[in-house]
Amino acid sequence: MSIVVPSLDFPASQTLDHESALHEAIREDIISGRLPANARLVVADLAERHGTSTNPVREALQQLRGEGFVVMVPNRGARVRPIDEDFIRDIYEIEVLIEPALTRWFVGIATDADIAALEALHAEMLDLNYSDPVRHGWLDTQFHHTMYERHYNRHAVGLWWKHREILRAIGRRHQTSRGRQAAVMREHGEVLEAIKAHDEHAAAAIVARHVEGSGRHIIEQMRAARRASPKEGMV
User: Fold this and answer.
1) Residue 69 gets which letter from DSSP?
2) What domains does the chain contain, in order, with CATH numbers?
3) Minimal CA–CA distance to 68: which of 173, 152, 187, 165?
4) What tens digit of pLDDT does each residue of 35-88 get?
5) Would you tell me how many other CB atoms lie within 10 Å of the CB of residue 165?
6) Distance (Å, rounded) from C-alpha 61 to C-alpha 19?
């Protein structure tokens, strides 16, 4: 399955067509647990639930399969893949290998215009200071997209984008701690300085730490939510 890395124009990305909205809705149901782990995904039932025909549902399930949210079981159809700590760990461990490699290559070809673009994105994130999570998420993604989008290995870039979208979707379910917010801003600044110094090894090491920190933070937030759930049920 080929993966297309889309344009990241903002806010045009907020205007979703029907198929994209359906994909987002089913994915949100999976992440939130409204469609529980290992639940069978019946195309006709989903079409009725979302007021659409069966073809868009089939297309959405294929896209979700490509993202890892849905598994196709022989003779049993489509089922929800458990969104657990192992799922997140597997993704960020792969990204710890991919993103530093993409970063090292970028340092070697970065232009003054690239650096100016990264500086502008970083400055806006600092000014925003997480006050608008949607805008921050776009800026954060664009920061990395600026570094990776021209890499010759389109499969690696596509895999980064796929994993980025998965982690961003799951991350929206959890609050980013103040400590992690500060770490993200600090690490963006550090990688920017390493790029300006043409230090590919330092830039790659910072990005590896950045990716691992983000993955571990999501797992920590998932554990915290799980611990809080029984208490909430007693209220």
Assistant:
1) S
2) 12-80 (1.10.10.10), 85-234 (1.20.120.530)
3) 165
4) 988 899 999 999 999 999 999 999 999 999 988 889 988 878 899 988 889 999
5) 15
6) 11
